[in-house]
Specification:
Elements lengths: L1 E11 L16 E10 L2 E7 L8 E12 L1 E3 L11 H8 L4 H6 L4 H10 L2 H17 L2 E7 L6 H17 L3 E9 L10 H18 L5 E6 L6 H12 L5 E5 L7 H7 L4 E4 L5 H10 L8 E4 L1 H7 L6 H6 L5 E2 L13 H11 L4 H7 L2 H6 L17 E4 L4 H7 L6 E6 L2 E2 L3
Parallel strand pairs: 1-4, 5-6, 6-7, 7-8, 8-9, 9-10, 10-11, 11-12
Antiparallel strand pairs: 1-2, 2-3, 4-13, 13-14, 14-15
Helix pairs in contact: 4-5, 5-6, 6-7
The chain binds zinc ion.
Protein backbone atom coordinates (compact mmCIF):
# COMPACT_ATOMS: atom_id res chain seq x y z
CA UNK A 1 0.00 0.00 0.00
CA UNK A 2 1.57 3.25 -1.16
CA UNK A 3 0.27 6.53 0.26
CA UNK A 4 1.13 9.77 -1.47
CA UNK A 5 1.21 12.92 0.68
CA UNK A 6 0.87 15.92 -1.62
CA UNK A 7 0.91 19.72 -1.48
CA UNK A 8 3.84 20.20 0.88
CA UNK A 9 4.99 23.83 0.62
CA UNK A 10 8.43 22.87 1.95
CA UNK A 11 9.78 19.45 2.93
CA UNK A 12 12.56 20.07 5.45
CA UNK A 13 15.28 17.69 6.71
CA UNK A 14 15.61 15.31 3.78
CA UNK A 15 19.07 13.87 4.49
CA UNK A 16 20.18 11.74 7.41
CA UNK A 17 23.81 12.91 7.42
CA UNK A 18 24.90 14.10 10.88
CA UNK A 19 25.43 17.88 10.84
CA UNK A 20 28.82 19.03 12.12
CA UNK A 21 29.63 22.69 12.89
CA UNK A 22 28.66 25.09 10.10
CA UNK A 23 26.58 22.39 8.34
CA UNK A 24 24.11 22.73 11.23
CA UNK A 25 23.03 26.04 9.74
CA UNK A 26 22.40 24.64 6.25
CA UNK A 27 18.91 23.41 5.62
CA UNK A 28 18.29 20.56 3.19
CA UNK A 29 14.77 21.05 1.85
CA UNK A 30 12.54 20.79 -1.19
CA UNK A 31 9.78 23.25 -2.09
CA UNK A 32 6.38 22.31 -3.52
CA UNK A 33 6.94 18.65 -2.74
CA UNK A 34 5.29 15.24 -2.30
CA UNK A 35 6.19 12.41 0.08
CA UNK A 36 5.56 8.77 -0.85
CA UNK A 37 5.12 6.32 2.04
CA UNK A 38 5.00 2.52 1.96
CA UNK A 39 4.74 0.16 4.98
CA UNK A 40 5.30 3.07 7.37
CA UNK A 41 8.56 4.12 5.71
CA UNK A 42 9.58 6.86 3.29
CA UNK A 43 9.85 5.38 -0.17
CA UNK A 44 10.47 8.60 -2.05
CA UNK A 45 9.96 12.36 -2.23
CA UNK A 46 10.12 14.86 -5.05
CA UNK A 47 8.55 17.87 -6.77
CA UNK A 48 4.78 18.08 -7.16
CA UNK A 49 5.06 18.15 -10.97
CA UNK A 50 6.47 14.59 -10.87
CA UNK A 51 4.06 12.81 -8.50
CA UNK A 52 4.27 9.00 -8.84
CA UNK A 53 1.50 6.33 -8.85
CA UNK A 54 0.00 5.43 -5.47
CA UNK A 55 -2.92 3.63 -3.80
CA UNK A 56 -4.09 6.63 -1.79
CA UNK A 57 -3.55 10.39 -1.85
CA UNK A 58 -3.62 12.72 1.16
CA UNK A 59 -3.23 16.46 0.58
CA UNK A 60 -1.37 18.30 3.34
CA UNK A 61 -2.87 21.64 2.31
CA UNK A 62 0.27 23.48 1.28
CA UNK A 63 1.94 23.20 4.70
CA UNK A 64 5.55 22.77 5.77
CA UNK A 65 6.56 19.26 6.78
CA UNK A 66 9.41 18.43 9.19
CA UNK A 67 10.76 15.13 10.51
CA UNK A 68 9.39 14.16 13.94
CA UNK A 69 11.63 15.40 16.77
CA UNK A 70 14.04 13.17 18.72
CA UNK A 71 14.27 13.73 22.48
CA UNK A 72 17.45 11.84 23.38
CA UNK A 73 17.51 12.58 27.14
CA UNK A 74 14.49 12.45 29.45
CA UNK A 75 13.37 11.21 32.86
CA UNK A 76 9.69 10.94 31.85
CA UNK A 77 8.80 8.17 34.30
CA UNK A 78 8.35 9.75 37.74
CA UNK A 79 5.72 9.54 40.46
CA UNK A 80 4.84 13.16 41.16
CA UNK A 81 5.91 16.69 40.21
CA UNK A 82 7.93 18.65 42.80
CA UNK A 83 6.35 22.09 42.63
CA UNK A 84 6.67 22.55 46.41
CA UNK A 85 10.47 22.52 46.09
CA UNK A 86 10.18 24.98 43.21
CA UNK A 87 8.30 27.41 45.43
CA UNK A 88 10.80 26.90 48.27
CA UNK A 89 13.58 27.80 45.86
CA UNK A 90 11.78 30.96 44.72
CA UNK A 91 11.59 32.00 48.38
CA UNK A 92 15.34 31.57 48.73
CA UNK A 93 15.90 28.02 50.01
CA UNK A 94 19.24 26.52 48.99
CA UNK A 95 19.74 23.09 47.44
CA UNK A 96 20.96 21.81 50.81
CA UNK A 97 17.94 23.22 52.67
CA UNK A 98 15.59 21.61 50.16
CA UNK A 99 17.42 18.29 50.52
CA UNK A 100 17.18 18.58 54.32
CA UNK A 101 13.43 19.14 54.03
CA UNK A 102 13.21 15.85 52.12
CA UNK A 103 13.50 17.21 48.58
CA UNK A 104 15.65 16.36 45.56
CA UNK A 105 16.20 13.10 43.68
CA UNK A 106 15.77 11.16 46.93
CA UNK A 107 12.29 12.70 47.25
CA UNK A 108 11.41 11.38 43.78
CA UNK A 109 12.83 8.00 44.77
CA UNK A 110 10.68 7.83 47.94
CA UNK A 111 7.50 8.79 46.05
CA UNK A 112 8.26 6.35 43.26
CA UNK A 113 8.66 3.42 45.61
CA UNK A 114 5.29 4.23 47.16
CA UNK A 115 3.14 3.97 44.04
CA UNK A 116 2.18 0.92 41.98
CA UNK A 117 3.62 0.07 38.59
CA UNK A 118 0.19 0.55 37.01
CA UNK A 119 -0.20 4.03 38.46
CA UNK A 120 3.34 4.95 37.42
CA UNK A 121 2.57 3.75 33.89
CA UNK A 122 -0.68 5.74 33.68
CA UNK A 123 1.02 8.96 34.75
CA UNK A 124 3.93 8.51 32.34
CA UNK A 125 1.55 7.65 29.51
CA UNK A 126 -0.23 10.99 29.82
CA UNK A 127 3.12 12.81 29.62
CA UNK A 128 4.26 10.88 26.54
CA UNK A 129 0.98 11.75 24.84
CA UNK A 130 1.65 15.46 25.41
CA UNK A 131 5.21 15.12 24.13
CA UNK A 132 4.03 13.51 20.89
CA UNK A 133 1.47 16.28 20.31
CA UNK A 134 4.38 18.73 20.64
CA UNK A 135 6.29 16.90 17.91
CA UNK A 136 8.39 14.26 19.68
CA UNK A 137 8.28 10.94 17.81
CA UNK A 138 11.46 9.37 19.23
CA UNK A 139 11.96 9.39 22.97
CA UNK A 140 14.67 8.18 25.32
CA UNK A 141 13.58 7.54 28.92
CA UNK A 142 15.89 6.87 31.88
CA UNK A 143 15.39 5.04 35.15
CA UNK A 144 17.15 6.47 38.21
CA UNK A 145 14.39 7.37 40.65
CA UNK A 146 14.29 3.81 41.96
CA UNK A 147 17.79 3.44 43.43
CA UNK A 148 16.95 -0.09 44.60
CA UNK A 149 16.77 -3.31 42.61
CA UNK A 150 12.98 -3.55 42.74
CA UNK A 151 12.22 0.10 42.11
CA UNK A 152 14.67 0.47 39.20
CA UNK A 153 13.08 -2.59 37.60
CA UNK A 154 9.62 -1.16 38.20
CA UNK A 155 10.60 2.00 36.31
CA UNK A 156 12.11 0.10 33.39
CA UNK A 157 9.08 -2.19 33.16
CA UNK A 158 6.99 0.96 32.81
CA UNK A 159 9.23 2.10 29.92
CA UNK A 160 8.76 -1.33 28.31
CA UNK A 161 4.98 -0.90 28.59
CA UNK A 162 5.23 2.59 27.08
CA UNK A 163 7.11 1.08 24.11
CA UNK A 164 4.18 -1.26 23.54
CA UNK A 165 1.50 1.40 24.14
CA UNK A 166 2.77 3.96 21.60
CA UNK A 167 3.67 3.74 17.91
CA UNK A 168 6.68 6.07 18.36
CA UNK A 169 10.27 4.86 18.93
CA UNK A 170 11.11 4.69 22.65
CA UNK A 171 14.53 3.75 24.05
CA UNK A 172 15.20 2.78 27.68
CA UNK A 173 18.30 3.77 29.64
CA UNK A 174 19.31 2.21 32.95
CA UNK A 175 20.46 5.00 35.30
CA UNK A 176 20.75 3.16 38.61
CA UNK A 177 23.85 5.32 39.21
CA UNK A 178 21.85 8.58 39.39
CA UNK A 179 22.34 9.39 43.10
CA UNK A 180 23.40 7.59 46.26
CA UNK A 181 20.52 6.38 48.47
CA UNK A 182 20.68 7.64 52.07
CA UNK A 183 21.78 4.27 53.46
CA UNK A 184 24.79 4.15 51.12
CA UNK A 185 25.99 7.68 51.91
CA UNK A 186 29.00 6.43 53.84
CA UNK A 187 29.74 3.44 51.59
CA UNK A 188 29.38 4.66 48.06
CA UNK A 189 31.48 1.90 46.48
CA UNK A 190 29.02 -0.64 47.87
CA UNK A 191 26.20 1.09 45.99
CA UNK A 192 28.24 0.95 42.76
CA UNK A 193 28.62 -2.80 43.39
CA UNK A 194 24.85 -3.11 43.91
CA UNK A 195 24.24 -1.36 40.56
CA UNK A 196 26.69 -3.59 38.70
CA UNK A 197 26.21 -6.93 40.45
CA UNK A 198 22.53 -6.91 41.46
CA UNK A 199 20.59 -4.44 39.31
CA UNK A 200 22.33 -4.98 35.95
CA UNK A 201 22.00 -8.79 35.63
CA UNK A 202 18.25 -8.65 36.40
CA UNK A 203 17.70 -5.81 33.96
CA UNK A 204 19.61 -7.65 31.25
CA UNK A 205 17.69 -10.88 31.91
CA UNK A 206 14.38 -9.06 31.42
CA UNK A 207 15.72 -7.08 28.41
CA UNK A 208 14.71 -3.81 30.04
CA UNK A 209 17.48 -1.46 28.87
CA UNK A 210 18.96 -0.27 25.57
CA UNK A 211 21.72 1.84 27.18
CA UNK A 212 23.39 2.48 30.54
CA UNK A 213 24.00 5.93 32.07
CA UNK A 214 25.76 7.40 35.12
CA UNK A 215 25.79 10.80 36.85
CA UNK A 216 29.51 11.67 36.82
CA UNK A 217 29.94 14.79 38.97
CA UNK A 218 32.06 15.90 41.90
CA UNK A 219 30.22 14.74 45.03
CA UNK A 220 28.22 12.16 43.06
CA UNK A 221 29.81 9.38 41.00
CA UNK A 222 33.57 9.86 40.61
CA UNK A 223 35.37 9.26 37.32
CA UNK A 224 36.49 5.85 38.61
CA UNK A 225 33.01 4.87 39.77
CA UNK A 226 31.46 6.10 36.50
CA UNK A 227 33.99 4.07 34.51
CA UNK A 228 33.12 0.96 36.54
CA UNK A 229 29.41 1.41 35.82
CA UNK A 230 29.99 1.94 32.09
CA UNK A 231 32.26 -1.07 31.86
CA UNK A 232 29.75 -3.12 33.86
CA UNK A 233 27.17 -2.36 31.19
CA UNK A 234 29.60 -3.07 28.39
CA UNK A 235 30.08 -6.62 29.67
CA UNK A 236 26.46 -7.19 28.63
CA UNK A 237 26.79 -5.24 25.39
CA UNK A 238 24.98 -2.12 26.67
CA UNK A 239 26.19 1.11 25.03
CA UNK A 240 26.69 4.04 27.41
CA UNK A 241 25.58 7.66 27.68
CA UNK A 242 26.65 9.85 30.56
CA UNK A 243 25.61 12.90 32.60
CA UNK A 244 28.74 15.05 32.87
CA UNK A 245 30.16 18.54 33.43
CA UNK A 246 26.90 19.96 34.83
CA UNK A 247 28.16 21.25 38.17
CA UNK A 248 31.84 21.70 37.32
CA UNK A 249 34.75 20.29 35.33
CA UNK A 250 33.90 16.79 36.52
CA UNK A 251 35.97 14.84 33.99
CA UNK A 252 32.71 13.54 32.55
CA UNK A 253 33.80 14.31 28.99
CA UNK A 254 37.11 12.50 29.53
CA UNK A 255 35.32 9.43 30.92
CA UNK A 256 32.78 9.51 28.08
CA UNK A 257 35.32 9.74 25.28
CA UNK A 258 37.76 7.18 26.68
CA UNK A 259 34.91 4.71 27.19
CA UNK A 260 33.35 5.31 23.76
CA UNK A 261 30.05 6.63 25.14
CA UNK A 262 27.48 7.56 22.50
CA UNK A 263 26.87 10.92 24.15
CA UNK A 264 27.84 13.12 27.07
CA UNK A 265 24.94 15.19 28.33
CA UNK A 266 24.72 18.56 30.20
CA UNK A 267 28.14 20.19 29.51
CA UNK A 268 27.51 23.48 31.30
CA UNK A 269 31.22 23.46 32.22
CA UNK A 270 33.42 22.83 29.17
CA UNK A 271 36.41 24.53 27.56
CA UNK A 272 38.87 23.94 24.68
CA UNK A 273 40.20 20.75 26.27
CA UNK A 274 36.75 19.09 26.34
CA UNK A 275 35.76 20.36 22.88
CA UNK A 276 38.96 18.99 21.32
CA UNK A 277 38.48 15.61 22.98
CA UNK A 278 34.91 15.42 21.65
CA UNK A 279 36.03 16.45 18.15
CA UNK A 280 38.78 13.82 18.13
CA UNK A 281 36.27 11.13 19.16
CA UNK A 282 34.69 11.37 15.70
CA UNK A 283 37.90 10.04 14.16
CA UNK A 284 37.36 6.73 15.99
CA UNK A 285 35.46 3.72 14.67
CA UNK A 286 32.71 3.82 17.32
CA UNK A 287 31.19 6.93 15.71
CA UNK A 288 32.06 9.61 18.26
CA UNK A 289 30.62 11.03 21.48
CA UNK A 290 27.82 13.50 20.71
CA UNK A 291 27.61 16.61 22.95
CA UNK A 292 24.07 17.03 24.31
CA UNK A 293 23.03 20.36 25.84
CA UNK A 294 19.98 20.59 28.12
CA UNK A 295 19.01 24.29 28.29
CA UNK A 296 15.75 23.56 30.15
CA UNK A 297 17.84 22.92 33.28
CA UNK A 298 19.77 26.19 32.98
CA UNK A 299 16.48 28.05 32.50
CA UNK A 300 14.67 26.39 35.37
CA UNK A 301 17.50 26.53 37.91
CA UNK A 302 18.98 29.86 36.76
CA UNK A 303 22.37 28.30 35.96
CA UNK A 304 24.81 29.03 33.13
CA UNK A 305 23.97 27.58 29.71
CA UNK A 306 26.23 25.14 27.88
CA UNK A 307 28.35 26.98 25.32
CA UNK A 308 26.51 25.57 22.33
CA UNK A 309 27.47 28.45 20.05
CA UNK A 310 31.18 27.83 20.66
CA UNK A 311 30.79 24.07 20.27
CA UNK A 312 29.22 24.57 16.85
CA UNK A 313 31.96 27.02 15.87
CA UNK A 314 34.47 24.37 16.94
CA UNK A 315 32.85 22.04 14.39
CA UNK A 316 30.93 19.78 16.79
CA UNK A 317 27.55 18.18 16.01
CA UNK A 318 25.52 19.66 18.88
CA UNK A 319 22.39 17.92 20.19
CA UNK A 320 19.62 19.47 22.30
CA UNK A 321 17.22 17.57 24.56
CA UNK A 322 14.61 18.43 27.19
CA UNK A 323 15.97 16.46 30.21
CA UNK A 324 12.25 16.37 31.14
CA UNK A 325 12.22 15.64 34.90
CA UNK A 326 10.38 16.87 38.01
CA UNK A 327 13.37 18.48 39.77
CA UNK A 328 15.45 20.49 37.34
CA UNK A 329 13.61 20.63 33.99
CA UNK A 330 9.83 20.20 33.93
CA UNK A 331 10.02 20.99 30.19
CA UNK A 332 8.45 18.40 27.88
CA UNK A 333 8.48 20.40 24.62
CA UNK A 334 11.46 20.40 22.27
CA UNK A 335 9.96 23.56 20.74
CA UNK A 336 10.52 25.29 24.08
CA UNK A 337 14.09 23.91 24.11
CA UNK A 338 14.59 25.39 20.63
CA UNK A 339 13.44 28.74 21.96
CA UNK A 340 15.92 28.62 24.85
CA UNK A 341 18.71 27.54 22.50
CA UNK A 342 18.02 30.44 20.14
CA UNK A 343 17.49 33.19 22.73
CA UNK A 344 20.03 32.10 25.38
CA UNK A 345 22.66 30.07 23.53
CA UNK A 346 22.45 32.15 20.31
CA UNK A 347 21.79 29.23 17.99
CA UNK A 348 20.00 29.93 14.72
CA UNK A 349 16.62 28.19 14.25
CA UNK A 350 18.26 25.95 11.62
CA UNK A 351 20.99 24.89 14.05
CA UNK A 352 18.46 24.24 16.81
CA UNK A 353 16.33 22.22 14.36
CA UNK A 354 19.23 19.91 13.44
CA UNK A 355 20.08 19.57 17.14
CA UNK A 356 16.63 18.07 17.88
CA UNK A 357 16.38 15.91 14.74
CA UNK A 358 19.23 14.23 12.88
CA UNK A 359 21.98 14.97 15.43
CA UNK A 360 19.77 13.80 18.26
CA UNK A 361 19.11 10.58 16.33
CA UNK A 362 22.91 10.12 16.11
CA UNK A 363 23.14 10.33 19.92
CA UNK A 364 20.91 7.22 19.94
CA UNK A 365 22.60 5.70 16.85
CA UNK A 366 19.23 5.79 15.06
CA UNK A 367 19.90 7.96 11.99
CA UNK A 368 18.97 5.06 9.70
CA UNK A 369 15.39 5.13 10.95
CA UNK A 370 14.50 8.48 12.58
CA UNK A 371 15.49 12.15 12.78
CA UNK A 372 15.14 12.93 9.07
CA UNK A 373 12.90 12.35 6.07
CA UNK A 374 15.60 10.49 4.13
CA UNK A 375 14.46 7.59 1.97
CA UNK A 376 14.14 4.39 4.00
CA UNK A 377 13.51 6.21 7.29
CA UNK A 378 10.28 5.81 9.22
CA UNK A 379 7.51 8.11 8.00
CA UNK A 380 7.43 10.07 11.26
CA UNK A 381 6.66 13.64 10.28
CA UNK A 382 5.07 16.87 11.49
CA UNK A 383 2.64 19.05 9.54
CA UNK A 384 3.23 22.60 10.72
CA UNK A 385 0.63 25.31 11.40
CA UNK A 386 2.29 28.05 9.38
CA UNK A 387 5.09 28.99 7.01
CA UNK A 388 8.61 29.68 8.23
CA UNK A 389 7.93 27.26 11.06
CA UNK A 390 11.60 26.81 12.05
CA UNK A 391 11.75 30.44 13.19
CA UNK A 392 8.17 30.49 14.49
CA UNK A 393 8.84 27.68 16.98
CA UNK A 394 11.48 29.58 19.00
CA UNK A 395 9.76 32.94 18.34
CA UNK A 396 6.28 32.16 19.69
CA UNK A 397 7.54 31.09 23.12
CA UNK A 398 5.44 28.33 24.64
CA UNK A 399 3.09 27.90 21.68
CA UNK A 400 2.76 24.64 19.80
CA UNK A 401 3.46 25.17 16.08
CA UNK A 402 2.70 21.53 15.20
CA UNK A 403 -0.68 21.05 13.52
CA UNK A 404 -0.60 17.25 13.25
CA UNK A 405 1.82 14.40 13.89
CA UNK A 406 2.24 11.34 11.66
CA UNK A 407 3.96 8.23 13.01
CA UNK A 408 4.81 5.41 10.58
CA UNK A 409 2.71 7.28 8.00
CA UNK A 410 -0.42 7.26 10.20
CA UNK A 411 -1.90 10.34 11.83
CA UNK A 412 -1.40 10.21 15.61
CA UNK A 413 -4.66 10.66 17.46
CA UNK A 414 -4.41 11.10 21.22
ZN1 LIG B 1 19.20 13.93 33.05
Amino acid sequence: MKTLFTDISRLIGISNAVKFGSAMNQLESLENAYLLVENGCILDFGKMENTPESDAIISLGNREVLPGFVDSHTHTVFAVPREEEFVMRIKGASYEEIAKAGGGILNSARKLRAISEDELFNRAKERVQKMILNGTTTLEIKSGYGLSVDAEIKMLRVVKRLKAAFPITIRATFLGAHAFPEIFKERKDDYVELVIKDMLPTIIAEELADHIDVFCENGFFSQEQATKVIQGGRKYGLPAKIHGNQLGYSGGVQVAVSNECWSVDHLEFTREEEWNLLLDSFKSDFGGTLPVALPGVSYFLGLPYAEGRKMIEKGLPLVLATDFNPGSSPVHSLQMVMSLACTQMKLTPEEAFHAITVNAAAALRLTDSVGSLAKGCRADFLVMKSENSLAKMPYFVGQNQVESVFVNGEKFIS
